[in-house]
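Is this the right way to post structure tokens for a design question? Let me know if I should format differently. Anyway, here goes:
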């Protein structure tokens, strides 16, 4: 189902980031993390620090505020009280059990998997546009999320991971990708990777034991590369290869932060032809990885 936008042109910053409607008459501030979920996790009164880092570890921006005041202001009343509210009503029925580890995403219906994928993508997009001066997610992706009610923006991947660690809330916002290449002109391929990298984005969000990862790689001729028995796709419209497994002698993870960062980072890409499984390859020690300077976001632990 496709929605249609109002054709009237309005000044930049005065329109809803999703539907393009006017904010003059009905501006609402969307809770980036829903109020009901903050209360369920017991962090509605917590203070969080959101820090932007370059890959060299130097912080470039910081925002500290109450989780209940963590808002995105460029949302109209029609979106906030319409399709966004509808998703909350559906997700709220099964999300608590996923967060506690009482159920797994594999048990969800196809319809519920789609709603969960759209719901977390909306959160990822609001995080991106609320916190970064230069958002990684292009405006057209927010518009497409609103416009196409039965799908997600072209090329998007959404996966779930069941974590051995639990935390009320945490997330990483990055452009770190595992990129596997085949033979050929390596220099030319690295140049192409750099171009694609600048248009990519990835967000990993954790509630309890549930990790949800939203990723976009712009090259439609490449497949997504995932770790077998770790990443569980919720949505994809491009080929996916489970071409890596966890090594038997893998180093243990230090904490939830280490695990969340690793499983988010290791969502990657590979050539369009299927790759063979590489038994024993440890997804914590990948060496074929392209990491030009990029900005990442990291959520701090709630402060009691």
């Amino acid at each position: 189902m496709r929605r249609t936008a109002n054709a009237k042109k309005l000044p930049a910053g005065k329109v809803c980031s999703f539907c393009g409607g006017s904010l003059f008459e009905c501006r609402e501030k969307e809770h980036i993390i829903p109020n009901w979920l903050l209360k369920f996790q017991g962090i509605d009164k917590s203070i969080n620090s959101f820090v932007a880092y370059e890959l060299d570890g130097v912080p470039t921006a910081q925002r500290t505020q109450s989780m209940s005041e963590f808002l995105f202001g460029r949302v109209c009343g029609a979106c906030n009280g319409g399709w966004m509210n509808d998703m909350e009503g559906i997700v709220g029925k099964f999300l608590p059990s996923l967060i506690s580890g009482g159920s797994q995403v594999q048990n969800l219906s196809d319809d519920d998997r789609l709603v969960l994928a759209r719901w977390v993508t909306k959160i990822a997009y609001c995080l991106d546009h609320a916190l970064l001066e230069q958002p990684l997610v292009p405006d057209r992706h927010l518009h497409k999320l609103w416009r196409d009610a039965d799908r997600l923006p072209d090329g998007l991947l959404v996966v779930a991971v069941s974590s051995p660690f639990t935390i009320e809330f945490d997330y990483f916002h990055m452009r770190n990708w595992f990129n596997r290449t085949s033979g050929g002109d390596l220099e030319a391929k690295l140049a192409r990777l750099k171009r694609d990298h600048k248009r990519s984005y990835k967000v990993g969000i954790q509630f309890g034991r549930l990790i949800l990862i939203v990723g976009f790689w712009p090259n439609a001729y490449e497949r997504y590369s995932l770790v077998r028995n770790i990443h569980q796709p919720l949505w994809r419209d491009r080929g996916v290869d489970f071409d890596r497994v966890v090594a038997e002698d893998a180093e243990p993870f230090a904490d939830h932060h280490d695990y969340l960062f690793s499983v988010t980072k290791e969502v990657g890409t590979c050539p369009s032809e299927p790759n063979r499984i590489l038994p024993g390859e440890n997804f914590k020690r990948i060496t074929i990885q392209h990491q030009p300077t990029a900005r990442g976001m990291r959520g701090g632990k709630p402060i009691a």
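Format looks fine. Someone answered above. Worth noting: The helical segments are 35-41, 77-81, 83-100, 110-131, 139-147, 186-198, 256-265. The CA atoms of residues 61 and 133 lie 9 Å apart.
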